[in-house]
Predict the 3D structure of the following.
Amino acid sequence: MLWKVTTKADQRPRLLADRHYTRQSVGHPMWTRPGYNQILYFEQQNGRAALFCWWRPKWESGLKGTERKDGLRCIECAIFRNETRHRSSELINQAVAMVLEWEHAKDVEWPDGLITGVSSSATMAGRAAGHEPGFCFRMAGWVDFHHPGRRKRADVWLTLPGVPGNSRAPKDVRLVSC
């Protein structure tokens, strides 16, 4: 397993987040969403690194504002950035294995599974010709699903079939690497 679990306070993943297309306040120390975050970080010897952040709201608290605005009960990949030589799809598969062992994935049901959103316009310049938005997630077995909410931040939504509690997609998907 290449990933190491770290915290929101670790500035190394924040520096990677600062280079992600979703970053709103570059340099600000609060770079993750409120709620539970599993921060995964990997750094090669040459200094190139990767970041993966799983996010789950604290919906079980019952407090106003702790539910997702779209009403989903899921765990979301809030940010993924890979600047290493490793295949993104392999890192995604490893991140999935780690979230399944995460204490905040085990303490409540999340019937809407694992999801991620991609902005097709914001990622266009970084994609290889002919690759769909979310290509490396797709190579890791993720599939499209209809997102019930607004599409302000992302216009392509993906979910991983076969994950405990995921009822949104077919169950037999072969995992490959991109």
